[in-house]
Amino acid sequence: MDWAAAALASAALFGMVTVGDKRLLDAYFPSVASFNFMVGMAQAASGLVVLAIVLPLLGVPSLETATLALAAGALWAVGLSFFFFGLRREEASRVTPIYSTFPIFTALLALTFLSERLSAAQWGAMVVVVIGTGLISVRSSPGHRGFTNTKALLLVLVGAAITGAAFVVNKEALGGGEFWTVYGLRAMGLSAGFMVLSYRPTLMSDVLTAMRNPRALNLYLTIELLLATTAVLLQQLAIKLGPVSLVSALNGARPLFVLGLTVLLSTRLWNVLNEPLDRNTVALKVIATALIVGGIVGLTVT
Fold first, then answer.
1. I want to staple 300 with a disulfide (CB 3.0 to 4.6 A). Which of 46, 52, 224, 249 is the partner?
2. Considering only 93-107, 252-266, 272-286, which range has the smallest mean pLDDT?
3. Confidence of residue 275 (pLDDT cuts 50, 70, 90)
4. 129 to 145, 223, 286, 292, 296: CA distances (angstroms)
5. The dihedral sign for the CA sequence 68, 73, 76, 78
6. What is the pTM of this model?
């Protein structure tokens, strides 16, 4: 599998994961912190299994590689925490396109720290993304004119910036270390980040409340251990094999998959997510999502 196919497959799986995360947050977990904690637990399990196998075979990585991999995971934990905060409070098809602007921040970091330059076409693509982000933040359904939850969407945008940094750090780690070792260490860094950010006096009570529900447990195992782990592995493979800016751009196609799934799961026959499906709202989301994804692709390929 080449890096482009891996990146697109990862984006598609992450679209499914996002919809599943939305369902878990809305229906089963009493708090975002308890959900973050369980995502961290899934990553810890994955990381520990991988490291237990590869460290005896491949040896201990250099201090620099280990630090970069752990830092990439921790940055991803912070970025995802902001994303989950927004996902709890807003529609998945609005939050995901804003979070998926992270390739812009990856490009800006390369511009700042790697002395890369942006062409006029790339600056134009960035403007297109900004316009799309603004449109996706507007609610035009009857009785709800104007912007949606501004605080939540701003925090998601901050999360996108932090995730953009995580891509760059992750690429540096993969450049100096073995794929599986870096994957395991990144997973441990992400898990540690979630554990620190999730601490609350009521944390374990909230976790037990969710996990005692058989439906919640089954959905959690499917989404976080099976789909999310596969999506991350494909993402890491793409980062390892391809240019990080282009990989992040293809990963930025996630909103297209999320939009399709949320429409499918908000119909009268299968109303799981309960997102509005009036003509104006869907049309606005389609236009804004197309602008964001198209702008991201234009930013990285021109």
1. 249
2. 272-286
3. low
4. 22, 29, 14, 4, 7
5. negative
6. 0.80
Task: Output the six-digit token pair for 93.
Answer: 């098809």
Average pLDDT over residues 105-131: 70
Q: CA-to-CA distance for 143 and 161, rounded, in angstroms?
A: 32
- What is the amino acid identity at position 302? T
75 neighbors 167 (Cβ within 8 angstroms) = no
Q: What's the residue count for the chain?
A: 302
- CA-to-CA dists, residue 118 to 100, 121, 124, 239, angstroms: 20, 8, 10, 21
Supply the pLDDT for residue 214. Answer: 94
Q: Measured between alpha carbons, how far is residue 272 from residues 230, 269, 287 in Å?
A: 24, 9, 24
Which residues are within 8 A (CB) of 102 and not within 5 positions of it... i.e. 6 or more apart? 79, 160, 161, 163, 164, 167, 248, 251, 252
Closest CA to 188 of 57, 55, 86, 24: 55
Query: Whole-angstrom Cα distance, residue 35 to residue 33?
Result: 5
**Rg of the chain taking only CA atoms, in angstroms:** 19
Report the C-alpha gap between 242 and 187 in whole angstroms: 20
Domain boundaries along the sequence of the chain: 3-114+149-254
Looking up tokens 């959900």, which residue turns up?
Answer: 35
